[in-house]
Amino acid sequence: MSDPVNIRTLPVGTRVVLNSGAEVEIVSNPGDGVWLFGRYLPAADDDAEEMIFAQDVVAVRS
Amino acid sequence: MSGYRAGMVDLASGLISREIFVNEEIYAAEQERVFARSWLFIGHESQIPNPGDFFSSRMGEESVILCRDRAGSVHVFLNSCRHRGMKVCRYDDGNTTVFTCPYHGWSYGTDGRLAGVPFFREAYHSELDRAKYGLVEVAQLCCYKGTVWANWDAAAPPFLEYLGEFRRFLDLILDGWDGREGQAELIGGVQKWLIPCNWKWPAENFSGDTYHNISHRSVDLVGAGPSGRSRRDYSELNVARRLHVALPDRGHQTITYMLPKDHQPQPAYQNSPEVAEYFRHCEAERRKRPGINSRMIGAPGEIFPNIALLPRQPRTLAVWHPVSAHQTEVWRFFFVDRDAPQAVKNFLRDYYIRYSGPAGMTEQDDMENWNYAHAASRGTIARRYPYTYEMGMGHAVENYEWDGLQMPGRVVDLTKAMASEEPMRNLYRRWAQFMEAESWDALMPWRQTARARAAE
């Protein structure tokens, strides 16, 4: 099990990896340490903004 | 006439039981009967100017969130997660995109919609109907001249109907000193503090208790007012009529001053020439405007149940939030004209906090009275002896008119009488009606009167 990722201060544009293996780009961060708003990659034109739960984030890509 | 539980509020004799102040069962019943059905003051729109802005407020004992959503609409929500009830907002104010529960992580948009549920797919198998579990929103909301009011009861009348003719007294705070509509803005933060007494002590006091002026003698002697004399500028009193005005069907009451026709502004705010000139100009402008408020000066009053107004010196709203039968959390909001010069705002801020709030000289006098009167009324023996509210019984008049100006409700002219307890009787009459009534249908006699007139 990897160390928990502190998502609270991750800036917009940061790419994170989820436990499903999916990669997400942060589009906004409410800073509550629980949720991120992100877009799944690779991006598609109609990609909607989705809420990403902190426990689903396993790594920071960039 | 006996009112509420066999004479606890007996307005025929003018006696009111101490139990309504100290009895914990009565206090618990008030939360449902009074606070869950009344219009309550939440805050001011100037506290949430931008999308995502929020201010944590209260309704009765309960925490609520005043916020502006992304589309700019104002909402008031119960600050309690729909999953296990945890507060979803634990800050006094700020800006956010979501309110996230720190317990299990449920997350709500600023429009109250449940947006995020951890493990929605895995643990809930995508079967939870998220639309059912948004934040609980108040049944009614009203933004009036910048102030925000809310009510949990959908059957309550709209806010302005609830106010009735008392609106003119609220306007004395919310309109500009020069009479322009809705010029008030909040200055500074909200002062909040706890006092060890029942919430009805300050509510009664601000209903218009002129009898306790002796308590403030030291403040008058030291000259805490904005002209270095007394605690307020009172020069109009030489010519004005000083009144108690009580609206029996609404439960609101106030002191007010009626000025004679063609009255000229009197010197005020003499501690600062710049501020004195500003108010002289505003008072002159106000007198040019049509309407009765140009001839009225506001003074302490109370909007039922727990909102106190003081329109002029200082210009402030206070809310007496119930915490327990024996404790109240006071929130005091101070106002200035938003386009007043900064020097005027600074002067007023200093005067306001010198007068009101936990460190205010006048409010400290009041708290001594409320806190120790409450403590001395809790004992087994003390509870046996009701308080007397007999002062001036039978001496209020209706259809009061002076120098061409009419006043609504039941009026006592204090110019000679000095004091009356008509406003307090009015407060407790309405309180007893709320405690007895099963629904709002029984609390709106004015609608029955209107229907009867229409049927004639």
Number of strands of chain B: 24
Q: Approximately how much beta-strand content do the residues of chain B carry?
A: 25-35%
Helix content of chain B: 25-40%
The most extensive contact between chains is: A-B, 10 and 11 residues
**Number of structural domains of chain B:** 2
3D structure, described in words:
The complex is a heterodimer of chains A (62) and B (456). With 62 residues, chain A is mostly beta strands. Chain A has one domain (15-60). Helices cover 0% and strands 40% of the residues of chain A. Chain A contains no helices and five strands. Chain A has strands at 15-18, 23-28, 35-41, 50-53, 57-60. In chain A, β3 (35-41) and β4 form a beta hairpin. With 456 residues, chain B is α+β, with helices and mostly antiparallel strands. In chain B, β9 and β10 form a beta hairpin. Chain A binds chain B through residues 28, 30, 32, 34-35, 37, 51, 53-55, and chain B through 96-98, 100, 102, 105, 107, 115-116, 118-119.
Structural key phrases:
heterodimer; A: 62 residues; mainly beta; 5-stranded antiparallel β-sheet; 5 strands; 0% helix; globular; B: 456 residues; alpha+beta; Rieske Iron-sulfur Protein; Naphthalene 1,2-dioxygenase Alpha Subunit, Chain A, domain 1; 2 domains; 9-stranded antiparallel β-sheet; 4-stranded antiparallel β-sheet; 26% helix; 25% strand
Give a quick rundown of the structure.
Chain A is an all-beta fold.
Secondary structure blueprint with pairings:
The complex is a heterodimer of chains A (62) and B (456).
Chain A: E1 15-18, E2 23-28, E3 35-41, E4 50-53, E5 57-60
Antiparallel strand pairs in A: 1-2, 1-5, 2-3, 3-4
Chain B: E1 9-10, E2 15-16, H1 19-22, H2 24-35, E3 40-44, E4 53-59, E5 62-68, E6 74-78, E7 93-95, E8 98-100, E9 107-109, E10 114-116, E11 140-144, E12 147-151, H3 159-163, H4 167-174, E13 184-186, E14 191-195, H5 200-206, H6 217-222, E15 241-247, E16 252-258, H7 273-288, E17 296-303, E18 307-310, E19 316-324, E20 327-337, H8 342-355, H9 361-375, E21 387-388, E22 400-402, E23 405-407, E24 410-413, H10 414-417, H11 422-436, H12 445-455
Antiparallel strand pairs in B: 1-2, 2-21, 3-12, 4-5, 4-7, 5-6, 8-9, 9-10, 11-12, 13-20, 14-20, 15-16, 15-24, 16-17, 17-18, 18-19, 19-20, 22-23
